[in-house]
Amino acid sequence: MADLKTRPTRKSVEKFISHIEHPTRQQDAKTLCLLLEQLTHKKPVIWGDSIVGFGQYEYSNSKGTYHWPVIGFSPRKQSMTVYIMPGFDDLSDQLSKLGKAKTARSCLYINKLADIDIEVLKNLCDTAIQTMHQRYHCS
Questions:
Q1: Contact at 8 Å (CB) between 70 and 135?
Q2: What span, in angstroms and rounded, lies between the C-alpha atoms of 31 and 98?
Q3: Strands 71-75 and 80-84, bridge-based pairing
Q4: From CA 138, how far away is CA 55, in angstroms rounded?
Q5: Average pLDDT over residues 110-131
Q6: Is pLDDT of 1 > 50?
Q7: Sheet of 44-47: strands edge to edge?
Q8: What pLDDT digit, counting tens, does each position of 32-81 carry?
Q9: Are strands 71-75 and 51-54 parallel, antiparallel or unpaired?
Q10: Domain parsing of the chain, residue ranges
């Protein structure tokens, strides 16, 4: 099995979030962490240096077999990045109602949660989680 640099760690999620310098981003990380824990029924785990992930799934490509979070987020300097693993092809209706956000492949970029409709984000994340469970064996 090939190795990725980004793997689950034993680092404290609470400590990681408490070290976020920007107060709004720190509060948003706490809110997002709680929301994703409620949706996945999984405890958050730090993956690599900066991803808070929930659950995991296995996927394979021509280079090997890998494990990755079912859903997760990273409080990056520029924006909060939410990792929506199935992508956004089937989520255009929900995205149109979300508010101020940008997307790329499997990344949803949010400057701050106040810019979006949190209920729409919750529904979007729940749909993504359910899709992952339909497509992959998730733990």
A1: no
A2: 16
A3: antiparallel
A4: 7
A5: 97
A6: no
A7: 44-47, 51-54, 71-75, 80-84, 107-110, 102-104
A8: 999 999 999 999 999 999 999 999 998 888 888 888 999 999 999 889 99
A9: antiparallel
A10: 13-135
pLDDT above 70: percentage of residues in the chain: 97
| For residue 4, pLDDT beyond 80 | no
Predicted confidence at residue 90, as pLDDT, reads 86
How far is 133 from 38, CA to CA, in rounded Å? Answer: 16
Neighbouring-strand partners of residue 96: none
DSSP letter string, 33-73:
HHHHHHHHT--EEEETTTEEEES-EEEEETTEEEEE-SEEE
Phi, psi (rounded to 5 degrees) for 97: -100, -5
Tokens found for residue 90 = 């089937």
Residue 3: pLDDT band by 50, 70, 90 thresholds?
A: low
Q: How far apart are CA 4 and CA 67, in angstroms?
A: 8
List C-alpha distances in Å: 56 to 69, 72, 129: 4, 10, 11
**13-135: which CATH number, 3.40.50.1820, 3.90.1150.200, 3.40.190.10, 3.30.565.10?**
3.90.1150.200
